[in-house]
Amino acid sequence: MNDKELLLWLDKARLGDESAFELVYQATHQDVYRTVAFLVYNKQDIEDIVNEIYMRMWRSFPKYDPNRRSAFGCTGSRSVLSKIGEERPGGEFASLNETAR
Predict the structure, then answer these.
(1) pLDDT of residue 14
(2) Are 60 and 94 in contact (CB under 8 A)?
(3) What value, to the nearest 5°, has the Cα angle with vertex 40 and ends 91 and 44?
(4) Contact at 8 Å (CB) between 29 and 40?
(5) How many CA atoms lie within 13 A of 81 on its CB side?
C-alpha cells in the first residue's frame, strides 16, 4: 500500500470504518513493531506498546485533523517514552530522569 492509499484508508477509519482501520493496521503494524523493537528490548513490552499505539490511534480519531497527519507519530513516541519512563533504575531501562543526567 502506498502513502496515498494509506491516507485514504486513514480518512475512512477516522469516520468509524473498522475495516479501514484493520487495513491501516495491517499495512503499518510491521514497521511500527520494528521501530518500537529498536527502542525497547523486552518482547512483552514491545507488544504492549504497539497495542497501546493502535488503541490510542483509534480513540483519537474524533480529534484527528487530516491537515496534521504527523500527529499519529507523536502517539507512538509518547507510548514508548512513557514505558521507558516507567522503568525503575537498575531495570532494563534507566528512567528518563536518570538518562538525562
Answers:
(1) 87
(2) no
(3) 85
(4) no
(5) 10
| Nearest residue to 58 via CA among 1, 20, 4, 27 | 20
40: alpha, beta or left? (left if phi > 0; alpha if psi -120 to 50): beta
Other residues' Cβ atoms within 10 Å of the Cβ of residue 29 = 13
Is 49 in contact with 40 (CB distance < 8 Å)? yes
Q: What is the Rg, in whole angstroms, of the alpha carbon atoms belonging to the chain?
A: 15
Average pLDDT of span 47-57: 89
- Indicate whether 9 pLDDT > 80: yes
Give per-residue pLDDT as tens, 75-84: 555 555 565 5
* Topology annotation, domain 3-100: Rna Polymerase Sigma Factor; Chain: A (1.10.1740)
pTM of the model: 0.67
